[in-house]
Amino acid sequence: MTELNGAVILVIGGSGGLGSRLGAQLTTAGATVVNASRATGHDLRDPAMPERLLSGIERQHDRLDGVVVAAGVVAFGPAGSVADDTLGELFQVNALGPIRLIRAAVPLLAASADRGRAPVVVTMSGVVAESPTAGLAAYSASKSALAAFAVAAGRELRRSGIRILDARPGHVETELSQHPIAGTAMAMGAGLDPDAVAARIVRAIVDDERDLPSSAFTA
Fold first, then answer.
1. pLDDT band for position 219 (50/70/90)?
2. What is the pTM assigned to this prediction?
3. Phi, psi angle pair for 63, to nearest 5°
4. In what helix (H) or strand (E) does residue 90 lie, and over which residues does it extend?
5. Has residue 1 been placed in a domain?
6. 139 is known as an active-site residue
7. Cβ-based burial of 86 (10 A; exposed 0-12, middle 13-18, buried ≥19)
8. Is position 84 within any domain?
9. DSSP H helix total and E strand total for the chain
10. Residues of the domain holding 63
11. DSSP state, 95?
């Protein structure tokens, strides 16, 4: 079981619909949450951002016990007409940025494990990593890239005492789909309750789970 009380956890995308709920629930569980987002100057498209952010956390808190990647962008439209700038932003924000952040966090997380804590990284690749979706081909690809990294890196980092948990909920009722970087949202029906999704992820953190498939959010 992972103890959240007293843990220092970074939530990137902490001002978003799901990230804000995760931050609030982690705080309620006793964690010290560092919320970071593009609104606070922490842009995942900037390759230098992770080092700056983590250096600040180390100066202020002297440690880091967890990273939750709750940031992301979405784009809709046919695979044959997706623009290069759309592709670039999807992969920068949904895959490359999180990968850089996780890479930069490894020394701090390994130090947390050395102190006897149970550091964790949470990625949210989403159901499209399991079932790539027509009309969301490029978005699906960017999230699938993150999922693949999480699986392989999780196997490597286990030796350092770092756990990676990938969560793949279906459509969640947040404003993400209402603000795509390209295209117009398709009809998706009612989504999952973001509070319930956040609660399931927090429970998985505490219970030392390593994988949350889409089916984990429908029971």
1. low
2. 0.95
3. -170, 170
4. helix 84-91
5. no
6. yes
7. buried
8. yes
9. 6, 6
10. 8-217
11. I
What are the φ and ψ backbone dihedral angles of 140, each rounded to 5 degrees?
A: -60, -40
Mean predicted lDDT score pLDDT of the chain: 95
**Under 8 Å between Cβ of 45 and 70:** no
- CATH assignment of the domain containing 186: 3.40.50.720
39 domain residue, yes or no: yes
Query: Max CA-CA distance within the chain?
Result: 50
pLDDT digits (tens, 9 = 90+) for 190-202: 889 999 999 999 9
- Provide the pairing of β-strand 32-36 with 66-69: unpaired
Q: Are 11 and 187 in contact (CB under 8 A)?
A: no
Per the CB < 8 A criterion, the answer to whether 162 and 121 are in contact is yes
Q: In this structure, are residues 93 and 73 in contact, taking their beta carbons and an 8 Å threshold?
A: yes
Is residue 130 in a domain? yes
Percent share of the chain, pLDDT over 90:
90
> What mean pLDDT is predicted for residues 186-212?
92
The CA-based angle 136-19-102, given to 5 degrees, is: 80
Q: Which of 64, 94, 120, 139 is catalytic?
A: 139
Q: How many domains does the chain contain in total?
A: 1
Predicted confidence (pLDDT) at residue 101 exceeds the cutoff of 80: yes
Confidence of residue 187 (pLDDT cuts 50, 70, 90): confident
